Amino acid sequence: MRERMRAGNITKLLAVAVFALGFATCASADITWTFNDVTFCYDCGGTANNDITATSWFTTDNSADTITGYDITVEGTNTQADNEYTPGDSASYFGPPEFLSTDTTHLDFYDFASNQNLDFYLAAPGITSAGGTVTLLAGDDGETSSSTIACAGCATLVSGSVTGSTVPEPKLGAFLLIGLAGLGFFARRKFANSPA
User: 47 with 41: CB under 8 angstroms?
Assistant: First the structure.
């Protein structure tokens, strides 16, 4: 009898530990940011001739102050042969590099192979751990460095935004399955050992 109570307590403790570990893992998930109708024009006559593809994205850590991954493609008439920005051929950073500080309303990508860059200026509060939709700022159409632009040639923003959402890490599902399997195993043993 005492052994059954002990096994039952161990089962409960394991279940609580697995669920707690699963939710702790979920809380540390990256935030995925996607682009919404981001268009640019070059020598603007009101016609957009560049955009960022709808499949483009970047991720930040859960505190939203470090870029953890990205794959951004610019398409249209004002691009060079290499128009995709990935960690393999480019650099990413928050804030103007000359200030050596994090400014989550300013996000830059620089492609070493093509010498092109993307500068994104975002409405306050910018990139945050809360995610949500943040408007990109046209600024003064590229007259100063506080405008959203796509270079070379520096096409300026017509419109667009980014939307951030957290995606639970796959580990959560694995931990939950292990916990449920453990519960099933102990329950089966309990019923198998109980008198008829």
Answer: yes
* Burial readout 83-113 (b: 16 or more C-beta within 10 A, e: otherwise): bbbeeeebebbbeeeeeeeebbbbbbbbbee
- The amino acid present at 153, given as its one-letter code, is G
Dump pLDDT digits (tens) for 139-171: 766 566 667 888 877 788 889 999 999 866 555
Tokens of 32: 């995925």
Are 10 and 182 in contact, with CB atoms under 8 Å apart?
no
Candidates 36, 72, 33; CA nearest to 150 is 72
69/167 Cα distance (integer angstroms): 14
- The DSSP code sequence of 69-85 is EEEEEEEESS--S--EE
Task: Give the number of other Cβ atoms within 10 Å of residue 151's Cβ.
Answer: 19
- Beta bridge mates, 73: 84
**pTM (2 d.p.):** 0.69
Q: What is the pLDDT of residue 92?
A: 92
Q: Is the Cβ–Cβ distance between 76 and 83 less than 8 Å?
A: no
Helices 171-193 and 2-27, interaxial angle, to 10°? 170
Distance CA(172)–CA(27), nearest Å, equals 10
Please check whether residue 114 is in contact with residue 82, taking contact to mean a CB–CB distance below 8 angstroms. yes
How far apart are alpha carbons 41 and 77 in whole angstroms? 10
